[in-house]
Amino acid sequence: MSAARVLVLICASGRGDRMRGGDKLLEQVEGRPLLRLLAQRAVAAGAPVCVSLPAPPGPRGDALAGLDGVDAVPLPGAGQEGMAASLRLGAARAGAAGAIGLMVLPGDMPEIESADIAAMTAAFAADPACILRASSAGRPGNPVILPADLFAGIAALRGDTGARGILARQAGRVRLFDLPGRRALVDLDTPEDWAAWRALRG
């Protein structure tokens, strides 16, 4: 991977308990499981892609079968620990590859498009010292691109707080990048969320 590129981490190792037995990452969107669709969109944007999975990967791993350009990595214990395990994986892979940044893309965001990923990575490459955070009408959302100098701090993260502490400590470096519509804010955690989203889309 060129040192001028951003690695995309799709976080897909969580348990998703709020789906009450379902799996939000396997919900069908455009005729495919959401997780597969997001991975395909990231690859189409020209980004190297790493996906954190539960161990064993089970149906989520099956959803990624046969995709070129996707590094799918099972993380033992990640379901109990939470987001930090995925972030450590992403930072380690990005650092080893010489990437200038790590895009953290939650796996439950069906409206994030290839064009959004490409536009954000291009904007970040022009200012690789910033923390670039997607927003909708000025409201911060996801995904977020973290610069390489923060990888060491990410390696020390534990638990399910994600990168919130890093974002708080580095608030002066955060730059918002507005995406169309509500794309940066739409994450679907419950069956009700999915039903409402599908109703809005007709």
CATH architecture: Alpha-Beta Complex
What is the fourth-level CATH superfamily?
Spore Coat Polysaccharide Biosynthesis Protein SpsA, Chain A
Kindly state the number of beta strands. Answer: 9
CATH topology: Spore Coat Polysaccharide Biosynthesis Protein SpsA, Chain A
SSE order in H/E notation? EEEHEHEHHEHEEHHEH
Question: Widest sheet: strand order?
Answer: 5-4-1-6-8-7-9
- Rg over CA atoms: 16 Å
Helix content: 25-40%
Number of helices: 8
Largest sheet properties: 7 strands, mixed
Residue share in β-strands: 15-25%
- Overall 3D form: globular
Label the structural class.
Answer: alpha/beta
Low-pLDDT residue spans: none
In total, the number of domains comes to: 1
**Termini distance?**
40 Å
**Mean model confidence by pLDDT:** 92
For this structure, what is the CATH class? Alpha Beta
Describe this structure in words.
This protein has 202 residues and is an alpha/beta fold. The chain has a single domain, classed as Spore Coat Polysaccharide Biosynthesis Protein SpsA, Chain A, CATH 3.90.550. Helix content is 35%, strand content 24%. The protein is built from 8 helices and 9 strands. The chain has helices at residues 34-44, 58-63, 78-81, 83-97, 114-126, 151-155, 164-169, 191-201, and strands at residues 6-11, 28-29, 32-33, 49-54, 70-75, 101-106, 131-136, 139-147, 174-178. The strands form 2 sheets. A 7-stranded mixed sheet has the order 5-4-1-6-8-7-9, sandwiched between helices. The chain has a two-stranded antiparallel sheet with strand order 2-3. It is globular.
